[in-house]
Amino acid sequence: MSSSSEDESMSEMEEQENQNKEMKHENGVLDYIMSLESVPTNLPPHLELLMTRVLCNNDAPQHTDTIQYSGAYAALGVDNSLRLDNFNQNFKVEVKRLTDDDIEFDMIGIDPSLANAFRRILISEVPTMAIERVYIANNTSLIQDEVLSHRLGLIPISADPRLFEYPDNAGDNRNEKNTIVFKLHVACHKGQPRMTVRSDQLKWLPNGSELIAEDAKLSASSKPKTFTSFTCSQESIPEISSNPIGPKYLDIILAKLGPGQEIELEAHAVKGVGRTHAKWSPVSTAWYRMLPEVVLLENIEDDLAVKLQEKCPVGLFDIEDIGEGKKRATVARPRDCTLCKECIREGKEWEDRISLRRVKDHFIFTIESTGALPPEVLFTEAVKILEDKCERVITEFS
Ligand code: SF4
């Protein structure tokens, strides 16, 4: 074979190889570009810092935005697109504290918009049971009917809302599946000292209302009509019989009665959500903060180290002995930083020594339950609600 025909066949092979390479990446041009050796895969450190951290300077925080545009760093060869596989790989939840009433956990690898979605769903969309209708048969106390009803509405009810249905709009069909009935009948008899009425005096009526509806009093029916129509006792529902229903806290003051005063009423609780009224919100608060990061930009030693330690009100800095009678400040508990900025307040020299930052995709989430559901269950319910919303959007678009 002549040298020119050899050259031709070589160039054909190279062309074929390039074509194969392109075909291999035909589903992802970006993947192909990223596979080239000359393309860097990491951002330079200063851009990496701005992308992943909020810088909390003395005057104002900087770089608070999250860069979601997929082509933001394309010119630098870095793929910034939102990918499910990346999310699956990086997303983590670490529980730091769990009690009956509250939970603190870290959500790592998540966008602020999603963290905020969970917070908002927790406050206003996870349902609970709360007292909605109050039938007052007698109230001779000083507290007005509407004020008393409002106080009753705010009592957290210990009942799993997942076992109940939402009431119909008219609220006429009240049965064992959508209504919980409580009765309160207290009297301070003449000659007795003043008495305090507390939430423990609310008695659950598993068989439904006992008050006769006014329009039914005159009916000739053998069984007088009440305000509910239960077909069975709520105690016969296994999940309820194992966890009897009642106020979560038994010492909430409802009213004070003087001698000769009396309250007799029935309170009906139904399922609802916090965006209708705060009484249905399952959390006293749900909040998050980004993970603090405190970085010493230079060694802070001896008297300055002691001064820095004294400045921090939460005792975040420790002092270590580095020999020859010298001491150096170290960051011991960065998670405790409240961002009070005391450590950088005394002038530019301190700002040059210490950098206060927040990690943009690491959230310290705290949920305080009002008591209807355990805090960890509240979060899983919020996840289910967000999932349902996403499915609805997908269904609408498909
Ligand atoms: S900002 Fe406040 S809490 Fe945080 S390290 Fe500085 S002094 Fe301590």
TrEMBL record:
One of its GO terms (cellular component) is RNA polymerase III complex. It is found in: Nucleus. Residues 102-396 form the DNA-directed RNA polymerase RpoA/D/Rpb3-type domain. Residues 1-17 have a biased composition (Acidic residues). One of its GO terms (molecular function) is DNA-directed RNA polymerase activity. Residues 1-22 are annotated as: Disordered. GO terms for biological process: DNA-templated transcription. The keyword Cell division does not apply. PROSITE patterns: RNA_POL_D_30KD (PS00446). Keywords: DNA-directed RNA polymerase, Nucleus, Transcription. InterPro entries: DNA-dir_RNA_pol_30-40kDasu_CS, DNA-dir_RNA_pol_insert, DNA-dir_RNA_pol_RpoA/D/Rpb3, RBP11-like, RNAP_Rpo3/Rpb3/RPAC1, RNAPI/III_AC40, RNApol_insert_sf, Rpo3/RPB3_RNA_Pol_subunit. Belongs to the archaeal Rpo3/eukaryotic RPB3 RNA polymerase subunit family. PANTHER family: DNA-DIRECTED RNA POLYMERASE, DNA-DIRECTED RNA POLYMERASES I AND III SUBUNIT RPAC1. This is DNA-directed RNA polymerases I and III subunit RPAC1. It comes from Arachis duranensis. The lineage of its organism: Eukaryota, Viridiplantae, Streptophyta, Embryophyta, Tracheophyta. The gene is LOC107473861.
